[in-house]
Amino acid sequence: MLTEECHMNPYLESFGIEVIDTDLGERIIQLAGQPPSHIVVPAIHLKKEEVGDLFHEKIGTEAGASDPTYLTRAARVHLREQFLSADAAMTGVNMAIADKGAVVVCTNEGNADMGANLPKLQLHSMGIDKVVPNIDAAGLLLRMLARNATGQLSTTYSSFYRGPKEDGEMHIIIVDNGRTKMMQDKILAESLKCIRCGGCLNTCPVYRRSGGHSYNYTIPGPIGIAVGAQRDDTNSLAWACTLCCSCSFVCPTKVPLAKIIAHHRRIKAENHQLPYGKEKYMPLVGKLMGNETLFNCSMSIARTSLKYLPNSLLKPFAGAWGKYRELPVAPNSSFETWYKKHRS
Amino acid sequence: MSSKQAILQALSTTALSDNAMPVINIPARLDDLLSQFETSLNTVTATLHRDGGLTGLQAEIDKLSSEGKQIISLVDGVTGNREVPADPHELHDIDYAIIKGHVGVAENGCIWVNNESVGHRVTPFICENLLIVLAAEDVCANMHIAVQKVEIASGQFGTFISGPSKTADIEQSLVVGAHGACSLNVYLV
What we know:
- Chain A is built from 18 helices and seven strands.
- Chain A is of the alpha/beta class.
- Chain A has four domains: 21-85, no CATH class; 92-175, no CATH class; 179-274, Fumarate Reductase Iron-sulfur Protein, Chain B, domain 2 (Orthogonal Bundle); 291-343, no CATH class.
- In chain A, helix 12 packs parallel to helix 14.
- Chain A is elongated.
- The relative contact order of chain B is 0.19.
- Chain B is built from six helices and eleven strands.
- Chain B has a single domain, classed as 3-Layer(aba) Sandwich (Rossmann fold), CATH 3.40.50.10420.
- In chain B, 26% of the residues lie in helices and 22% in strands.
- In chain B, strands 1-11-6-3-2 form a five-stranded parallel β-sheet, sandwiched between helices.
- Chain B has helices spanning 3-11, 33-43, 53-66, 115-118, 123-126, 143-149, and strands spanning 47-49, 71-73, 96-100, 103-105, 111-114, 129-134, 139-140, 157-161, 166-167, 175-176, 183-188.
- Chains A and B meet through helix 3, helix 5, helix 6, helix 7 and strand 6 of A and helix 1, helix 5, helix 6, strand 8 and strand 9 of B.
- Strand 6 (157-161) of chain A pairs antiparallel with strand 8 (157-161) of chain B, so a sheet runs across the interface.
């Protein structure tokens, strides 16, 4: 994820270096020329038939084959050649243990370890937020990571590197890229507790409906909004959320995602970065809804209009909402009137 | 100012207060660790061989060897039919690798192996099938205990292995056998 955040692959390629992603999902989207749509399952948006067609074209699998086992094994054979001929390997880091100077890399496929342990040069890149104080902390987080990512007991391989292989070289690249700036804000800083399990994506009603690419940021879902909204030039990302708080409840490291997302909205408003509509009409809507008389009057007008005015006249007011929906049937009276009649 | 200095300076003025490392005190489930371990291994599609020990393992190896399989053993008392090569790339055609595990974790089937027990670091990943020999008394209850037992000296490498490699990157269907070993058998001694 970090190399995607920093656009590392295009940079390396500009120097004539061939970069091959080795996680199966990452390799699929690399061959397809697409960005990831999920942080744990990058190619979750593709059907097996689409992967089959892609592999047929790029790595010569049988035409029309779509069996996941067959396709995975074909990728295993294809990527083995790459592992055996690579000059360097670069992995991400799940945890960096401060008092040992070790990095922990977790995979289910074994691609990080196949990569790092064959060529002489091994590189590990990480954000500063991956540092944990000691091995006890790493043990605790290892218990949480896979359980919340895929429901597994543990990732298949949780590898601790505290130095290179014999005659090898090991480099750890530590990246800030805006993280220390987030730490200046108490609420935003909480998002750096994330261990990237993807639990918040899996539970998010907006993510589940719209998919990862709609966020237009490397990391989608609630955590993507939390760490990406500040870089969002459209100033709309923070509103791709219903504030249902499901993510805050499932997060194993207790990142208060909904609170952070609401905070991003506040920051955008305070910096006058709201889109035109929100900046201009929302204060008016607020005033209207805050005033009982005004609110009751306008509701009364709406009920009467819905009852007597033709659809063709009213529909345009519904905007995009009304594109695939009928206007509601107006009730005879307000809820308040109904309540007073029946309860008092 | 170097980028490292810039990061360290920025870190000195954050809005966060220092927190002491919390005490991790999570009660461990201690009943019948070996059965727990076996259940966990089954869950991660690995197999535990409780009986037979090294003799049983050697008999299995001899059978595989007679079938023409390429076998490398890094465990004393078990012999394969290949030597540890100078270049790790030459391990690419190994069918079976036998290595020693140091710590087993009952709650999740993890087994700790380190570079002293694997020859080349890539051995447990590059082989088609992995066999781990583990002493029954080295099985502990959970990860909190396990990380206290493992030792990673400066310059070392170690890994927790929980079953064979797997992936669910195509339509979330589980496929065992991704880039690492395609099967894992654990022999208790």
